[in-house]
UniProtKB/TrEMBL annotation:
Coiled coil as UniProt keyword: no
GO biological process, one term: SCF complex assembly
Transferase as UniProt keyword: no
PANTHER family: TIP120
Superkingdom to which the source organism belongs: Eukaryota
Region annotation (Disordered) ranges: 264-292
Record domain TATA-binding protein interacting (TIP20): where: 995-1157
InterPro entries recorded: ARM-like, ARM-type_fold, CAND1/CAND2, TATA-bd_TIP120
UniProtKB keywords: Acetylation, Nucleus, Repeat, Ubl conjugation pathway
Protein name: Cullin-associated and neddylation-dissociated 1
Gene name of the record: CAND1
Location within or outside the cell: Nucleus
Amino acid sequence: MATNDLMSELQKDSIKLDDDSERKVVKMILKLLEDKNGEVQNLAVKCLGPLVSKVKEYQVETIVDTLCTNMLSDKEQLRDISSIGLKTVIGELPPASSGEYCQSTAQGTAQGTAQSLLVNFHPSILSCLLPQLTSPRLAVRKRTIMALGHLVMSCGNLVFIDLIEHLLTELGRNDNMSTTRTYIQCTAAISRQAGHRIGEYLEKIIPLVVKFCNVDDDELREYCIQAFESFVRRCPKEVYPHVPTVISLCLRYLTYDPNYNYDDEDEDDNAMDAEQNDEDYQGSDDEYSDDDDMSWKVRRAAAKCLDAVVSTRHEMLPEFYRSVSPALVCRFKEREENVKADVFHAYLSLLKQTRPAQSWLADPDAMEQGDTPLTMLQSQVPMIVKALHKQLKEKSVKTRQCCFNMLTELVNVLPGALTQHIPVLIPGIIFSLNDKSSSSNLKIDALACLYVVMVTHPAHAFHAHVPALVPPVVSCVGDPFYKITSEALLVTQQLVKVIRPLDSQQDGSETFDPSPYINDLFTCTIRRLKAADIDQEVKERAISCMGQIICNLGDRLPTELPGTLLIFLERLKNEITRLTTVKALTLIAGSPLNIDLRPVLPDAVPILASFLRKNQRALKLCTLAALDILLRNYSSAVTPAMVDAVLAELPPLISESDMHVSQMALSFLSTLAVTHPSSLGQLSGGNILVQLIALVRSPLLQGGALAAMLDFYQVCALVATDTPGLGYMDLLRMLTGPVYSQNAALPHKQAYCSIAKCVAALTRACPAEGPAVVGQFIQDVKNSRSTDSIRLLALLSLGEVGHHVDLSSQPELKTVILDAFSSSSEEVKSAASYALGSIAVGNLPEYLPFVLQEISSSKRQYLLLHSLKEIIGSASVAGLKPYVESVWSLLLKHCECQEEGTRNVVAECLGKLTLIDPETLLPRLKGYLLSGSSYARSSVVTAVKFTISDQPQPIDPLLKNCIGDFLKTLEDPDLNVRRVALVTFNSAAHNKPSLIRELLDSVLPHLYNETKVRKELIREVEMGPFKHTVDDGLDLRKAAFECMYTLLDSCLDRLDIFTFLNHVEDGLKDHYDIKMLTFLMLARLSSLCPSAVLQRLDRLVEPLRATCTTKVKANSVKQEFEKQDELKRSAMRAVVALLTIPEAEKSPLMSEFQSQISSNQELAAIFDSIQRDSSSANMESMDTS
């Protein structure tokens, strides 16, 4: 009892011991370890934990000393209890806690004491532990192995080498099987705890483990295979050469079952099904199962090891499908349930690896390479289904759950793959839904599987099975457990789409008659819809399901419909269910069956209008979509009063603060203009137009919101010509008024572009007004009193209008625009160049020859080339075809221009022109790589960048064949050519990785070569009394590191991470910009390949520490201080990311750095704020609502 009281006291923070008390307590507890009573001994060990953090350094030394001496004692019980005590002490003082330990010791003893304290004892701990590995008691060996596992995480290198050498020597001697088993177990434990350290010894260890695998001893085999599993998971690089050996051993032992004969099972499936009904069937296993049979453990270890191999070696997928996949499928018949679960888990891992997570896997180019993993899996589907078919009827719940997980993952990877096999699988799913012995989880898994299969396969495949599917699903909807009900409602919703697909007119499945099932499905759903006292999730799913029933089958439910819609109205008024109900109403309103919603519209529309002022963004968006579709399909039933209620809520929604909501609001207004033109009169004096004009002037207006805005203006101009205040000229004045009123210029150039686009949309809708307005704009540009703002808007508007309307009837246009090229304002010049290009698109034969002639003769080539770029980018391919040759020859004359800006525009033009006729022009581009001029070479390589986009294009196969030639310029003698080659490579890696994946082996050495600092490119420039260092190679290195960062996202599986890390390590010591990039890379690598980073951790910590501890000179400028602060923050982000790797803090260097951070006030503050940011970001990403 006294010991127990002491332990509870020690656990309190308030207790403080003086030297004398410390000595007495330590002495007494160590004495209690030798007590005769086992319980007292156990309590004494538990006291050691809190005690070591309360006493001084020399007392901890006494404790460790005594424990080590006790472990060599003759008394077995004392040895046991001391080893547990030592483990407790080691666990209490890991290196990472050294900082906190120091603070709790009196007057903050020097940092690192706790760490150095145990480090001093590591050799003696090791010498005590090693003899225990041969102890006659297995429990002692097991604990020794655990203690060694804890030791290797933090021990020094010499101790680690001693331990490994000892293990290798003993394994080589192989005195007896029992100790060999222990040594193999110990090796596996060390690998699990400190895999990053054992890697370099694998060459010696693996042949020994392979040798023992072949010894006829089941337990030894199990330990050997477990050792392989830990090597595969923890030492990915070093184990690579041995993976084929590991796979072949695992495949061999996966089928290792000497006491059982499986052959007769496959003879006759029907006989087996008949046997299923025989009550004694299960008993037939008993005569084989032998208590001494350990072979199942070998099979389980083999399955787990294969799981590890499959999960970690993505690049070997095709090989796995050739050898591992068929072997695993054959073992689905495994008799031992635990082993079977692991076999299924291994196959699940294989499927997860195959899932095309990367865009390149789904690329048509990538698919051309013969046997891809997906096509190989496709060919094995019949074999998988045959194996699963038997297992789905097993009595074991665990087995059936595994089958459902497998099927779910299979159809996620290969949607539609089971179309031919539905008849075989449906009975198995129904069996689990009807089976009285099925657990809740099994039913949930069966329903989830059925749902995924129905979503990913065509409706007609299920028509034959609907009579069998409906009753069990309906009974599950009525199940008292809410999770089953919820899942069953989801299946019912999908089932409704199956029995009456609305998009099925073309595939002839109208032959299927849904009427026998409508009543059952409706009745079970309405019961759940009416219930008020059920789970939130069930309420929502019942609403969605009923929405689907009415959408697909509403015309067959004439009597039930009005009552059901009234329930929807009730649910719409309830805050908890309103969002789901809005979505269901949107679905019903969009149904091609024209469901009669008129009875509920007078009540529903005002409620929907009120939702527009709520804070919930998702509700606003869904409500706008619902109102839009109600207007389209039920315009006659929507009264002006209803419209007014909605219009009153719209002004706050049209703002730059939320572009998506604005876009939906604009779409609603466009629909309103078509269905209720009379309501537009409300807009003329109201807030809505004010908000619209404000939005047009926003620099953020682009993409979908801009398209919706233009659509609204066009519809408005077409429909509202007679409405006062909304005529063509009224709208035009509203748009352009602020610019003409001579007030301050608009704050952003984007606003002029948006206004010009709106003007063009209006003019397209009212062609009669066009000539007068265009004439006015031409006069504005000519007028010497016009401000730059007016000129800018007039030129952009001319360009936008001319893009769609032929302006060749305006004789002055060409001269007016060319005169604007001489303006003093840069913005007016670029607007004139855009206008000329855009107008030319409206009439190529008239304007393109004129532009080409001007480029040849004029001095203003840069602006004219921009006009040409606009023409090539916007004109139709057919229109440009006749001019390709003349444009091409003109561009080539300018691709050697000294001015880089001009060269870049020429390169973009060349690239976009190549897309028009790739067969002819791409080989020509390739030919210019041999040009003597470095300017020409850089233009050509830059041109290739503009032929790459993230969408599939006809040029892709041609580009894939020759992009290697363009990337050979990475070896070009000219610095600038190499830089643009890297930029092009980066663009390819980002937008279309399939182009460069196969070339990485040859390109990466050149890429890595460019990350090195070149002394010959660094020069000193004298600036008055100061000398300034200029590094000409910096841009090149920056481009190389940017490429490396991109490759992490797109081609990770093709990189040798250790070589990659070498260059990241160099980057950590480079210039400011490059450090920032490499810190980002480190954070990314920590999450993508933690085990590789862990192996290099000690080398990565040093540069991070150097960055964090660098001091800026006191007399430096403010920017230097800001730069250093930003570097520190970035380095700290990398440190926080590194610490997310589970075992990072066990590294001695990392833990020392951590204590350094916590003792420095500035660094600790940065560290804490970043940790808070990252944890809140994680919470946000988890909150999917």
